[in-house]
Amino acid sequence: MEQLFDLALLNTTLRVLTPILLAALGGALCSRAGLFNVGLEGFMLLGAFSAIAGNYYFHNIFLAILFAILVVSVFSLIFAYLSINLRANVIVVGIAMNALAAGLTTFSLRTLFDVKGAFYDKEMVGLPKWNIPMVEDIPVLGPIISGHTPIVYLAFVIAGAMWYYFYRTKNGFRFLAAGENPLAASSIGIRVRRYQYGAVLANGVLCALAGAQLSLGQLTMFTEGMTAGRGFIALVATMLGQSGPLGVTASSLLFGFMEAVSIRFQGLALPTHFTQMLPYVVTIAAMFFFKDKSFVKDAQKQSSSSR
Amino acid sequence: MQLQMDNITKKYGEFSANRGISLSLKAGEVHAIVGENGAGKTTLMRILYGMEQPTSGAIRLNGREVSFTSPLDAIRHGIGMVHQHFMLFPSFTVAENIVIGNEPGKSGRFDRKHAIQIVEELCGQYGMKVDPRAVAGSSPPGVQQRVEILKVLYQGAEIIILDEPTGVLTPLEVQELLQAIKHLSKQGKSFILISHKLNEVLEVADRITVLRDGMVTGTVKKGETDARQLSLLMVGRDLEELKKKPSIPGEKVLEVSGVTLRGTKGKPILENIYLDVRAGEVVGIAGISGNGQSELLQVVSGLIRSDKGNIRISGTDVTGMSPKAIRERGLTHIPEDRYVWGANREATVLDTGIMAHHRRLQQGGLLKQKELKALVSQWVSKFSIKTGSLETRTQYLSGGNLQKLIVARELEQGAPFLIAAEPTRGVDIGAMETIHGELLKRRDGGTGILLVSSELTEILKLSDRILVMYEGQIAGELSAAEATEEQLGLLMAGGSIQ
């Protein structure tokens, strides 16, 4: 058991929590804008696939990520148009987006690359790993923090930026206002729809990055349904963190850590399927323990205001 | 004239909401607009505030013709509106709610300290006190209203429209509001006050314009009119004096003994309540809202369980029974909030009307559609409920009409005991007259009525006995014959009259 907890475990935590954190931040933006987005899973999956596709066609990691952002943004616009302009129920639209993304990626995998299940190509380049000079030499902290993909660092920067945006800027203040009471906001001339579109598009970008980290961050390959419920875990992180950037970061840390532990357990001759269960069990347990907290009420409020 | 509205007409298809209405406002004047529900007050104000465009007619501000296409236009021209349902952001602070839309701070940053300073200055300038750091949603309604008024003042309003401003306020808060209006009008701000509470209008307004069926039926000056003339102009006929026969109390229909209810932190919400209601009498419960009245009604009707105590209805112990079982033992309930407890906004008038009656008029689980329809349409004509059809969704009914529907539904249950909670909240004079008349008719027919109302006039008018609730306890009991508003007000504020 001395192999269970070490610095590498925390290093893994940072790597695996990134997709969850990015998607959860996107989910927080959406729910603050009054559109509770259950489609995170689908957005992320599409991001993962289009990052690989972009990578294969452009042979350029930067263009690959840009391509993923573009594709998921188009997908986000569909979500936004349906739920904002056509006033469809956001939960239903979100579920539809998940189903659409699952089907679309599987279908494209076969038609574009003529493979089933997974796609891998030697020519593809993965995300670079940054060994930060100075920092990597710090004992304890260095091995944990250094050696990650740029997206990992970016995720934390975005979380901080979002906090600043929400609680320090006028625009962020109006964003929160538009989500809290759209009627009152529009009565003083705040263009609520504009903020809602902004939230959904930003969520698209974040989910594209989350997907790119999944498919390009470690192995540089795409497998069908490779998000494996991370979008839903991100959704729980959004609710657990009460849609605040700091809370969301904290709850993502918890889920990321549990995922890292589950990966570690696999090396300990425990059945794989059992260990893979761990993050999800913790998710359910988290829901149970926090059931009386106000975020549940928020979630209920959100689902009742979801038209 | 600061503001002049000339010959405003607004048509929705064939229906005219406003027909040639003219209205003027001088600087520093308080101009009240009164009228029944559906008389066109709200439409007129929505036109002035840029939320609707008139079909014909003109608006002039200081002599210049203007046209507003959005509330933002109106705000820029110095017109502010305090809506009947507050337009606040409950989780934000008072200061944030006031400065929103024009926040202080440089290069996109929101300077919250400066915002607090601004609000403190505003409070001083206009003599209205609020705590800028308090959270708006947990402030009492009176404070929320002050926040709304300060918000429009901060936006630079010279003309302030107040739409039914006293509906949710306690008597004390109403007085504070009226004082604030007088104070601000002395500083040159003009007010348009929409209301149907004639005593408040008479106290504060310089001029009063009465609307009926979308037309002006009269504009009168303060001091040259009285409540009777105004209601004549509003309703188009003299109101009948409510005649109350002495009550003949019979058997006890409700006995509440020793009911105690504790809140989440063990704080008592109801403490050792004893009361009973006899057949053929109206027992009124007065009190500032939030002193346990709502909870008492919920305990009696079985919606929540008390920690201690017993409830008997018509002699049967119903403690701990389900609401359905309790209703079957002889209770009907006109609920306090018609949207939360009384109706389903999405349902049709018919569906809302047949609630509870559906248990009676059915056979093997199938509703007797014909009879139910006949029943509801009978109420519609009897209570003159204005609705497009029985298939209209309840949310499109005006508050007063929905209330009449709910009252009709509950009265028709014909149970020996009736809870009437705020039976005329937000209802116009004509409808109020109908509802009060019906309640007394039921009393004379032998129904026991427990009336809860925050309107003292209503309590005094209908009750035979009056109980005052204060902080979860019965603070005193008075017989209706000897009770005065002063005594009740004192008990409601926690004082004693011995």
From TrEMBL, chain A:
Predominant place of localization: membrane
Pfam families per record: BPD_transp_2 (PF02653)
Annotated TM spans: 12-31, 64-84, 91-113, 150-167, 195-212, 232-256, 268-290
Keyword terms, alphabetized: Cell membrane, Membrane, Sugar transport, Transmembrane, Transmembrane helix, Transport
UniProt GO cellular component terms: plasma membrane
Localization per Swiss-Prot or TrEMBL: Cell membrane
GO molecular function, one term: transmembrane transporter activity
Annotated membrane topology: Multi-pass membrane protein
Keyword Protein biosynthesis attributed: no
UniProt name for this protein: Simple sugar transport system permease protein
Record organism: Paenibacillus rhizosphaerae
UniProtKB/TrEMBL annotation, chain B:
Keywords attached to this entry: ATP-binding, Nucleotide-binding, Sugar transport, Transport
Stored InterPro entries: AAA+_ATPase, ABC_carbohydrate_import_ATPase, ABC_transporter-like_ATP-bd, ABC_transporter-like_CS, P-loop_NTPase
Domain ABC transporter: 3-238, 254-496
Coiled coil: none
GO MF, one example: ATP hydrolysis activity
Record's protein name: Simple sugar transport system ATP-binding protein
Organism: Paenibacillus rhizosphaerae
The organism's taxonomic lineage, starting at the top: Bacteria, Bacillati, Bacillota, Bacilli, Bacillales
